[in-house]
Amino acid sequence: MPDSTDDPIRPSDLETLLATPDFGDSAISPDIDTIAARLPSLAEVVGVTVAGPVIMNAVGVHGSPTPLGGPLAIGAEQISLRLNPSRLSSALQTDPAALVPPTLRLFDSSGNTAHATYLTENSDRLAFESLSLSTSVAAVHGSDPAPVPPLPGPEYIQAALHDRHDGDQVGLFDSILLDGGTSRLRLLAQGHGSRGIRVDPSRVITSLEHAALLGMTVTVAAAAPGCMQMRQDRLDGAREHRGQMVLASGTSRVMVNFNHVEQCWVTRSPGVWGPTAAIEFYDRRSRCCLVVTHTGPVPRATAEAWDHLTCDLAS
User: Fold this and answer.
1) Within the chain, which residue ranges are assigned CATH 3.40.1570.10?
2) What is the third-level CATH fold of 4-138?
3) Is the dihedral of CA 208, 211, 215, 216 positive or negative?
4) Cα torsion 228, 241, 76, 115: sign
5) pLDDT tens, 137-176?
6) Architecture of the 153-314 domain
7) N vs C: which end of the chain shows fewer Cβ within 10 Å?
8) Each residue of 283-293: pLDDT tens digit?
9) What pTM does this model have?
10) Reduced to 3 states, what is the DSSP secondary structure of residue 89?
11) In 154-311, beta strands by DSSP E
């Protein structure tokens, strides 16, 4: 699983799709907020978040996406997204083509896929088709994509910042959504802000395998630019081979290419049971691509087991 972002001159995902002849009828929209609000209406889908060396997928129904500063609505019953629309450029809706089912893709500001929603036989096709009626324009294949008008990002961010919970778990996730976590990593490396301990990725692999062996409940958050897919559930399995690791949790899978993970840190943020550890993964461009922690009112035994595991990892 190579990290396609390592090639800075490759065409963007959006450019590639629009240049593909006969890819299928498509509609493109810059109205991220409206599109995101309608995701739950699609019923059962496969939600895939592409976060550099991390790919997370889940089968289920989208919950209502939450914005920066909003509550952490995470569970095992739904596909949970946390969005920063200022870092997303457009949505592309495509009909079935080349063995690919009907798909809705959210693109980051560089035109690369942040999140893709694939319809299944249990999806609401009428709801999918209605997305393009009021928010989209027809996409022109075989030509350069037209510039997408910028979203009102600064105003959106400032409104969210007013209610941010600096230092707690909401602040942790939002600091990553704001700029990919690059500022957060810089503060960690300088010993400022959130206190953290850098750990060897090979030890992280061992810790996650042990967590799966114990069937721990964890929160996993894959962080693409502007889009974070989150899930909290029992960790059913974890297997690594030659730097490629798969984490299994219910109907969700997280694939991590440790060959492209540059740094791992153990940090702590205030949670329900006090300071709660998180394992943060950063790629070669200093962007946070994955966070593993636990959130919300988990049983005390779960919190204690996670604390014991992460203390061993950071020692």
Assistant:
1) 4-138, 153-314
2) Heme iron utilization protein-like fold (3.40.1570)
3) negative
4) positive
5) 555 444 444 443 343 333 333 434 444 445 789 999 999 9
6) 3-Layer(aba) Sandwich (3.40)
7) C
8) 999 999 999 99
9) 0.87
10) strand
11) 196-199, 217-224, 227-234, 237-241, 244-249, 252-257, 261-271, 274-283, 288-293
